[in-house]
């Protein structure tokens, strides 16, 4: 199978963020295929599932280290409660998501 609700084999995805956890490796935060056409869905996927085609680091990324994990994301997404609000469908969080997503995409179109 070359396609799922989440990802399509051979499709190029922009990495929205990176998560590294001690003993678990590196995961990429990817905007999924149309899980819900009215609302973006992001999820982490193992980096070994992808071939890197660009090494450009988006200018809005910030790294946060906590315990045995490290997250690198657009800095506004690191605000406490952002992802809870985003997944709850909060319009203001979605607006922040779209703005920062566009920065990531436009840094390496």
List the helices and strands and how they pair.
Blueprint: E1 15-21, E2 25-31, E3 42-46, E4 61-66, E5 69-74, H1 82-87, H2 91-107
Antiparallel strand pairs: 1-2, 1-5, 2-3, 4-5
Can you describe this structure?
The protein has one domain (15-107). With 109 residues, the protein is of the alpha+beta class. Strands 3-2-1-5-4 form a five-stranded antiparallel β-sheet. The protein is globular and about 35 Å long. It is built from two helices and five strands; from the N terminus they run βββββαα. The protein has helices at 82-87, 91-107, and strands at 15-21, 25-31, 42-46, 61-66, 69-74. Helix content is 21%, strand content 28%.
Secondary-structure content class: alpha+beta
The chain-level mean pLDDT equals 87
Please report which band the strand proportion falls in: under 5%, 5-15%, 15-25%, 25-35%, 35-45% or over 45%: 25-35%
Reading the helices and strands in chain order gives EEEEEHH
Helix content: 10-25%
Would you identify the regions where 5 or more consecutive residues have pLDDT less than 50?
Answer: none
Shape: globular
- CA(first)-CA(last) distance: 28 Å
Largest sheet: 5 strands, antiparallel
Strand order of the largest sheet: 3-2-1-5-4
Number of H/I helices: 2
Number of domains: 1
Number of E strands: 5
Radius of gyration (Å): 14 Å
